[in-house]
Amino acid sequence: MSTRKPSDYKSELKPIWCPGCGDFGVLASLYRSMADLDLDPAQTVIVSGIGCSSRLPHFASTYGIHTLHGRPLPVAMGVKLANPELTVIAVGGDGDGFAIGLGHFPHAARRNVDITYLVMDNEIYGLTKGQASPTSLYEQKAPSTPFGNPEDPLNPLALGIAAGASFVARGASFNTKALTELITQAIEHKGFSYIDALSPCTTFNNTQESWKELVRDVAPDHDVTNREQAFELALKGGFTLGILYRQERLSQSERYRNILDKAKASDVDTMLDSFNARKGAAIGKPS
Questions:
Q1: Phi-psi region of 20 (alpha: psi -120 to 50; beta: other; left: phi over 0)
Q2: Residues 94, 152, 149, 21, CA torsion sign
């Protein structure tokens, strides 16, 4: 039974997001999830990049690292590798994570780093005044695209499944109960957990009411262990909420621990003799 309350995870700093911003709902869900799991703030680290959503670590009583634009994942991975006992949560937005930060996403996914990546997806750049982001819809109008966005949007759910993430889900800031449950399951999952959290920007992309009408839950008979079904569901697009894919496999920390155990149990002299023998054989080969 949890001995902590959601309020125990609030820092002294008050959120400075615009009134009605979806990030408030995501933060509230994260507070509740950490309380449900009774996480020790001193053993929890929240890492962010740059953007409105990336201010989140300032509002939590855990350890926090506000990194560079698009860099929460490599920093979070380094924290987890340095101390596998920590609970590590990376947060950011669609611009931060899927533009300059996209190169880190597939590698964190395929390595199955045991961290939770929570992306507040508002389909716009909020902090830099409303430019189209990688998830902005085709023909979406914004300050940078007054005649409509000429680019097709990235599909982050399909990308996560294709890249090898072992937990892929979508939640919504306006459904905090369901989002809290998703975050809890993601943190408990041993491996790379990715949650795309719909988080409307009330200033530059106010989709709050329209998104509420479009969302639907993942079908009860959906097999979350079937990767092909998950990929098919992700490609359908829309606003399907819930877990699309979940796979149980060794995390990066567990695989590294196995390597260390094997190295400790091995005979160093035998290893060196074997290495020197192979090296000598290679040098002696005719060109």
A1: left
A2: negative
Q: Using CA atoms, how far apart are residues 94 and 208, in angstroms rounded to an integer?
A: 17
Determine contact, residues 6/25, Cβ cutoff 8 Å.
no
Q: Are strands 240-246 and 167-172 parallel, antiparallel or unpaired?
A: antiparallel
User: In the predicted model, is pLDDT for residue 91 greater than 80?
Assistant: yes
Does 238 lie in the same domain as 260? Answer: no
Burial class (CB in 10 A: 0-12, 13-18, 19+), 41: middle
Which of helix, strand or coil describes residue 38? coil
Q: Are residues 41 and 157 in the same domain?
A: yes
Residue 129: Cβ within 10 Å count: 12
What does the DSSP assignment read for 118-147?
EEEE-SS-TTTTS---TTPPTT--BTTBTT
Decide: 251 and 193 in contact? Cβ < 8 Å: no
Alpha-carbon distances of 65 from 29, 77, 266, rounded to whole Å: 20, 12, 38
Three-class secondary structure of residue 160 per DSSP: helix
**For residues 190 and 184, is the Cβ–Cβ distance under 8 A?**
no
Same-domain check for residues 185 and 52? yes
Assessment of whether the complete model's pTM goes beyond 0.85:
yes
Q: Which domain holds residue 192?
A: 6-249
> C-alpha dihedral over 124, 95, 212, 214, to 10 degrees?
90
Summarize pLDDT for 92-149 with one digit per residue, the tens.
999 999 999 999 999 999 999 999 999 999 999 999 889 999 999 999 998 889 999 9
Query: Are 271 and 216 found together in one domain?
Result: no
Question: Can you tell me which residue has the tokens 């008979």?
Answer: 221
- pLDDT higher than 90, residue 80: yes
**Judgement on whether residues 155 and 243 belong to the same structural domain of the protein:** yes
Does residue 245 sit in the same domain as residue 219?
A: yes
